[in-house]
Amino acid sequence: SQTIHQWPATLVQPVGSPLSLECTVEGTSNPNLYWYRQAAGRGLQLLFYSVGIGQISSEVPQNLSASRPQDRQFILSSKKLLLSDSGFYLCAWTRDSLLAKNIQYFGAGTRLSVL
Amino acid sequence: AQSVTQLGSHVSVSEGALVLLRCNYSSSVPPYLFWYVQYPNQGLQLLLKYTTGATLVKGINGFEAEFKKSETSFHLTKPSAHMSDAAEYFCAVRSYNTDKLIFGTGTRLQVFP
User: Do A90 and B32 lie within an 8 Å CB cutoff?
Assistant: First the structure.
């Protein structure tokens, strides 16, 4: 069966420090991968998505970047965190097939507090 | 462009009462519609989805939703609320030719004994 892992589960970082959040998917190959941010009262905002190694699409301009160094690994980074980067970050994946794209599977999330 | 509106950021019901969470969408192409549930400090779990076919769809935990094209709605219902239903619920839409989901802002459901 397929599983998705995110770590760390919680993170407290000072303003101006770097960030690296990791997401990995097991049990499937060539998944489509997504990073979302959830801010209080604002729902989920799609930040990045990737259809393959090294292929990253950014949805909104921001202080963050994403990379996909391996087929099932998706990394969210920042060189210098801002207070506004605080939130709950969720990774998700879908199968790379026309029919199976209907369902996104989510990781457990990382709660980031920037102080 | 597609969008989703969830009416009511908070809904409170008594245990055993009807649950109704509202979702309206905007889409220029036939939509695919989803309801996800999020328990505290967890990721999202799919409750149910509508793609094509029968407009009344049944999901997990006794929830169901009806796609009404004329009303551009996809409201989530459950006949009898249980304490374990307390969570945040998100409606989402995407078109048939993209993977991207557009989420609503969520509705937090509280269930009182």
Answer: no
